[in-house]
Amino acid sequence: MPLLGAHLSIAGGLPRAVDRAEASGCQALQIFTKSAGQWRARELPPEEIALFRRRVRQTKIRPVVAHNSYLINVAAADPALRQKSIDALREELDRAESLGLDGLVMHPGSFTSGTESGGLKLIADALASILESRPDGTTRILLEQTAGQGSNLGHRFEQLAEIIDRLGGSPRVGVCLDTCHLLAAGYDLCSEEGYRETFRQFGRTVGFSRLKAFHLNDSKKPCGSRVDRHEHIGKGCLGVEPFRRLVNDPRFARLPMLLETPKLDTPESRKRSDVDPYDRKNLNLLRSLIRSQNPRIPNPRIANP
Asked: The pTM is what?
């Protein structure tokens, strides 16, 4: 079975995210290690790091990955912004290493001027510099396939493959596929033939050995829209069937599949955000799809509905 989980809040400290994951019935987890909308990051106290790592061991929730800041753009044409982005990405990788995380998910970047090829080269050069400066690192950088909004790079499999090729096929770089982004970028997951063709292309262009995680999100916008708008599972343009295929696809068994669907957003939920009812509903739906295909497979870590 895949390892189902969600992106969860770190409000109250990083270990609280692991507590929330356990309470929500997650088998895998994604977090921010800092505010996603700020450049500055608070220093992580050693005791917080130690407690986070201990809670991960105790709960056996793995893999755990982080998503980097949305401000980072290592393909920026402005040299000052690009260098600021490279420094911030290096810091985020260091934070992930200190926490013992399996991966750091990043949007490859956007080229605001120049060419697509030039933007891909800037991304690869930045990653090469960061990885060379951290030769003993174990946390992988996971390039997230994007929806292709504006000048965003990484929405086509060929773009991801070019970045990896420019890095000499480094084993420290993997890929995270987002179901909403795939549909928005023009990969038709809705039909059975479209699903098969999408992953034929991925296997041929990037290779399944690079695939380390999924983000499971339905899409508010249709195939080819190139608009990134997440929706609850089964409530958008994808519907339920693509998720049924994914969670039962033997090629993806034991891969983390992480929700980034909308959260309940009320004053009370922001105070008491331990278990988001939308996360629970989406996770239970995904589990029901596994059970419907594989009734003999037990269903671990199910929280009470």
From this structure: 0.93
Let me know: does 230 contact 261? Beta carbons within 8 Å: yes
Number of domains comprising the chain: 1
- Write the CATH number for 87: 3.20.20.150
Residue 302 covered by a domain: no
Are the C-beta atoms of residues 20 and 8 closer than 8 Å to each other? yes
pLDDT of the chain along its 305 residues, tens only?
A: 899 999 999 999 999 999 999 999 999 999 999 999 999 999 999 999 999 999 999 999 999 999 999 999 999 999 999 999 999 999 999 999 999 999 999 999 999 788 899 999 999 999 999 999 999 999 999 999 999 999 999 999 999 999 999 999 999 999 999 999 999 999 999 999 999 999 999 999 999 999 999 999 999 999 999 999 999 999 999 999 999 999 999 999 999 999 999 998 766 655 555 889 999 999 999 999 996 544 444 333 323 22
List, as one string, the DSSP characters of 154-168.
Answer: --SHHHHHHHHHHTT
Radius of gyration of the chain (CA): 19
Taking the C-alpha atoms of residue 238 and residue 132, their distance in angstroms, rounded to an integer, is 40
Contacts of 112 (CB under 8 A, 6+ apart): 76, 77, 78, 151
Give domain status of residue 300, yes or no: no
CA 266, distance to chain mean position in Å, is 25
Beta bridge partners of 256: 3
